[in-house]
Design brief:
single chain; about 270 residues; alpha/beta; Rossmann fold; four-stranded parallel beta sheet; about 15% strand
Length: about 270
């Protein structure tokens, strides 16, 4: 296993460079990334502190900074330490500027603006937390999407991810011999999506969950035959209601959320006038 010191330097939150760094390193096998995050770097003193750490643990530097003076200081410091550094947004911003024929407006953290979209995300998060795991079912019609699935199909984390993207997301657990909220079957506004998972994989995940909680392993919750029947019953319900179904067996939370967003967008396009 090769260890890589990845220094992320930003004049804002560092989320952009951090995401690029993680996505890039994931393309290589047997690499252990040691992440060093340097955020809100807007003064020479703060930058010098980051440079000292870079010299102490040389590796690779990715940065997002708009101040030319600080950028030059960082690049000069990296060259002196023989450490490669990359401005992750430069190629994209340059290409977009050329296409638009517009001048770049250098603004630290320009994407983090407390505007209507920002407050919309806050509202979505509050809604999602209040409608987790079948709570507040009477106001489900205010949701953008409702996820329905058996236990351990990543309903809650997927909803949280969607909320951070501005979608009001609720989730309802499918429990054998337990009726679903009657409101669910009469909803008109939200998209309803069924989540399913391979029964064998589901048993493994549930067993690990019980081990973590120090609970008895001898229960219907992890019985292979009963879990398979539970998944089958859930899928039959989804199909009878005409709900789209996503198999999350080999999907990350981000991939599941992306599939949900695609369904939401497709539904919105279908209702738009021609």
């Amino acid at each position: 296993m090769t260890q890589l010191h990845m220094h992320i330097v930003s004049d804002s939150t560092g989320e952009t460079a951090e995401a690029v760094a993680r996505a890039s390193v994931a393309q290589f096998e047997h690499i252990e990334m040691r992440e060093h995050l340097w955020t809100m770097i807007r003064t020479e003193a703060a930058l010098d502190e980051a440079l000292a750490a870079i010299r102490a643990h040389p590796g690779f530097v990715m940065f997002t900074m708009v101040d030319d003076r600080l950028r030059e200081r960082l690049e000069k410091g990296c060259r002196k330490a023989s450490v490669p550094c990359l401005a992750v947004l430069d190629p994209t911003v340059a290409a977009l500027g050329a296409y638009l024929g517009a001048e770049v407006k250098a603004k630290p953290g320009g994407q983090h603006v407390m505007d209507a979209e920002y407050f919309g995300r806050i509202e979505a998060i509050q809604f999602t937390l209040a409608h987790d795991d079948g709570q507040s079912s009477r106001s489900l019609d205010q949701a953008d999407v409702v996820l329905v699935g058996v236990s351990r199909t990543s309903k809650t984390p997927t909803c949280i991810y969607l909320a951070n993207r501005g979608f009001k997301a609720a989730n309802i657990p499918f429990v054998p011999d337990c009726p679903l909220p009657p409101e669910l079957l009469t909803l008109r506004n939200p998209l309803i999506v069924g989540l399913t998972k391979d029964p064998k994989r589901l048993v493994q995940v549930r067993r690990n969950r019980l081990l973590l909680l120090d609970k008895d392993q001898d229960s219907d919750y992890v019985d292979p035959a009963k879990v398979a029947r539970e998944v089958s019953e859930a899928r039959k319900l989804f199909e009878s209601q005409g709900w789209p179904v996503i198999d999350v067996t080999r999907r990350s939370i981000e991939e599941t959320a992306a599939s949900v967003i695609k369904l939401i967008n497709r539904r919105q396009e279908d209702v738009l006038p021609a």
